[in-house]
Amino acid sequence: MTSGPAYFSIFGNRTTYLKTEMLTLYDFNALDDNGKAEAVWSGTFLADRFDETHTIQLYAVSNFYVEVFYDQEANRIVAFRSFNSKNALAPYLAQIKFKLS
């Protein structure tokens, strides 16, 4: 049995649902943290990086990107940062390895 795309409500208890591949950056930003987490987990993990106190994971969701900031000491997600600018991907470029023949 195959599963289809994830669905979730962006309007609280209303019965209106969106497919995650149709989710816009604006819709994502309007979600509460639980909705954002559901959208991110249905996206594609791309990379992670670290700062002094956070593990920052990068996901592709629909036609934009989301960084998930995880506080290692508190053991919880503390923020989501969504964007569609390719320039914001710069901190992840060092992780890309090219094999030159």
In short:
The chain has 101 residues and is of the alpha+beta class. It has one domain (7-93): 2-Layer Sandwich (Viral Envelope Glycoprotein, domain 2), CATH 3.30.67. The protein has helices spanning 25-30, 33-41; strands spanning 7-9, 17-19, 44-50, 54-61, 64-71, 76-83.
Describe, in plain words, how this protein is organized in 3D.
The chain is α+β, with helices and mostly antiparallel strands and 101 residues long. The protein contains two helices and six strands, in the order ββααββββ. Strands 3-4-5-6 form a four-stranded antiparallel sheet. Strand 1 (7-9) and strand 2 form a beta hairpin. It is globular, with a radius of gyration of 15 Å. The N and C termini lie far apart (41 Å). Residues 1-18 have low confidence and may be disordered.
Descriptive tags:
101 residues; Viral Envelope Glycoprotein, domain 2; 2 helices; globular; single chain; 4-stranded antiparallel beta sheet; alpha+beta; two-stranded antiparallel ribbon; disordered N terminus
Secondary-structure map:
Blueprint lengths: L6 E3 L7 E3 L5 H6 L2 H9 L2 E7 L3 E8 L2 E8 L4 E8 L18
Antiparallel strand pairs: 1-2, 3-4, 4-5, 5-6
The helix/strand order is EEHHEEEE
Given the structure, what is the number of helices? Answer: 2
* Residue share in β-strands: 35-45%
Number of strands: 6
Q: How many domains?
A: 1
Distance between the termini: 41 Å
Mean of residue pLDDT values: 81
The dominant shape is globular
CATH class: Alpha Beta
CATH architecture: 2-Layer Sandwich
Sequence of strands across the biggest β-sheet:
3-4-5-6
CATH topology: Viral Envelope Glycoprotein, domain 2
